[in-house]
Amino acid sequence: MDAAQIAGLNCLRLMNETTAVALAYGIYKQDLPAPEEKARNVVFVDLGHSGYQTSVCAFNKGKLKVLATACDQLLGGKDFDGVLVNHFCEEFGKKYKLDVKSKPRALVRLYQECEKLKKLMSANSSDLPLNIECFMNDIDVSAHLNRGQFEEMCVDILTRVEPPLQSLLEQAKLKKEDVYAVEIVGGASRIPAVKERISKFFGKELSTTLNADEAVARGCALQVHYAKLLQLVSTCFCICLSGECITR
Ligand SMILES: Nc1ncnc2c1ncn2[C@@H]1O[C@H](COP(=O)(O)OP(=O)(O)OP(=O)(O)O)[C@@H](O)[C@H]1O
Ligand SMILES: [Mg+2]
């Protein structure tokens, strides 16, 4: 709240990202089961730049219950950038005799280029170039990498995708078959190897109902919008967090 105030923003309420994503889904989906029917269990997976959050929620029309949440607060797109940066630091060290890590400016440029390359590799599996002009000591550098090589370098990071998913099912006492859909959001969930791991874990195709970049913001905006509407029409809407119900 203090940070928002310092930035000159009028913060109405702090909202948990996981809840915001689930809310955006619940409000958007028109075909949820009726309140008396069996709830629909949906898993949300959000892999951002610096954090990995997952949740499983049970939905009925007008009702959302967060059954469990699990995260790896240190896993995100930045780790994939880091692997690329280390790889090219080593390559440029050998090829051009450059100590990239000794020059912060060059290192920042390399991080920027590696993030771009990472994104390109999500859409393209062929060999891709990385060229930086006047990188250090007036030297232009160039290299190539493809998705297959990138995935091999990221094996250790990729093994961190499954544990939170396993924890979710254990906490919620659900089997994989009890999961109706797996919704992915967050920019780094676009990495094909990440998608593959999540899909393989649940044994189902992933869903992208929500906009990967806007789901959290939309959930928050909808919460404010509906809260205002609900005040007007005094309709009953129920949000349950960890089993506790907040009814408006
Ligand atoms: N097409 C893509 N392929 C691979 N990674 C991508 C792609 N598009 C975005 N990313 C990565 O997604 C990350 C940003 O995702 P997002 O905007 O969800 O993060 P964030 O919400 O700001 O971070 P966090 O949730 O961790 O606080 C960055 O690491 C970015 O490089
Ligand atoms: Mg995020």
UniProtKB/TrEMBL annotation:
Protein name in UniProt: Heat shock 70 kDa protein 4
Similarity-based family: Belongs to the heat shock protein 70 family.
Organism lineage string: Eukaryota, Metazoa, Chordata, Craniata, Vertebrata
InterPro entries with a match to the protein in the record: ATPase_NBD (IPR043129), Heat_shock_70_CS (IPR018181), Hsp_70_fam (IPR013126)
UniProt key word Nucleotide-binding: yes
SUPFAM superfamilies tied to this protein: Actin-like ATPase domain
Keyword entries, A-Z: ATP-binding, Nucleotide-binding, Stress response
